[in-house]
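notes to self, project folder thing:

trying the whole complex as one job this time. last attempt i did each chain seperately and stitching them together was a nightmare. two parts in total, labels are on each line so i dont mix them up again. if this works i'll redo the older ones the same way
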Amino acid sequence: MRPFDYLAPQSVEDAVAALAENGAKARALAGGTDLLVDLKHETATADLLVDLTRIAECKGIEETDDGLRFGSLVSHTEIMDSELVRRHAPSMIDAARTIGAVQTRNLGTLGGNLVTCVPSLDSGPVLVALDAEVTVAGPDGRRRMTLIEFFVGPRKTALQAGEILVDIVIPRANLGKPCSFRKFGLRKGQALALVNAAASLSLTDGKIAAPRIALGAVAPTVIRAEKAEALLDGRAPDATLIAEAADMAVIEAKPIDDFRASAAYRCELIRALTRRVLDEATEQAAG
Amino acid sequence: MDVTITVNGKTRGADVPPETTLLTLLRSNLGLTGAKLGCDVGDCGACTVLVDGEPVNACLMLAAQADGREVLTIEGLSDFQKLSPLQEMFELFSSFQCGFCAPGMIISAKALLDKNPTPTVADVREALSGNLCRCTGYTKIIDAVMEVAARGGATAERA
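result (full assembly):
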């Protein structure tokens, strides 16, 4: 790697100040599983790395008044091992365990996964399906937004110069909400998703309430299949309805051809995975 | 910058440039060449070491990020008189051909057995999915780990 300077601030404010002061040549470092690779390949450059990993505020998983809070530095392994996550949002564990391999799950962070913002990021769909919100901090203070607003495009988030991601919160109302995640990759280990999908919903008097369908690797960023959700809302789930919603999700997605799969193949995966996560979420809801 | 780590039970320090990875610190500065430089981007697992008990790719961690932490490398598993149970079983099963992946495989297997002394074959495959063997000797590697587990597993493992 080309030489760079290094700072390891202990607080969000100090990190933000260092990033703001040094402009575009400074990069925030968390688990390093993306940024260090980019620096080695020289697809990214940095004169200064601001290492966030010593910031206590960005660590840990806890239940707060708002809901389930993940510090942005929480590793994928910490999510897999968390009793709180198991109780309140177990589909987060299903997603985390499909990421990379043991070593990269120990290093890689939830925040890093979201900030890198590749279309196939595996921690996105479940969090979007559970209406997660994020806190970002910058030179002008802090702001909250929904995760879906945070995702702007491939490798592009709503983070402005000098801003970092502080935490991710699943709102209290959605703790324990039935939710299912599925990913299809070309291998079990260390494979990027060809398509990943999450669905969450509740059942009220046998009718679907608050349905969410979130799809990854099928558009420039994680998307919600809102027309498919509208089809489901307020109706009793059955195989025909779920198949209709899956067909609608295919129409809403914009998958591309690439070296991993054709768009046509991805469309079939969207149909199959959407149906499967809806079936599973419905089963959970029916208890 | 000054970096101090506890490696294989001993406190070691070095003055290194910030872009130094933990792997470079171990191999070039501290003379611990057991962890290997393979892909250098976190795919192959040849550089796997334990940091605070967890397996990580030493090529993807800056030395500065390891400052103050505890690192275990393959050199820390045995005292050069007697092999550790994993090392012994990998030898007995002829688990390696070229051996380049061996230190990483053994460290990943140790991390598994420390957490789960009675793994299933599926657990072993999952635990080793971040370690690539280009000689394709996976079956004998998995057999060796299962045998260590059957004989008492992690409790017999040093360090």
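what i see at first glance: Chain B touches chain A through 29 residues (CB under 8 Å).
need to look closer tmrw
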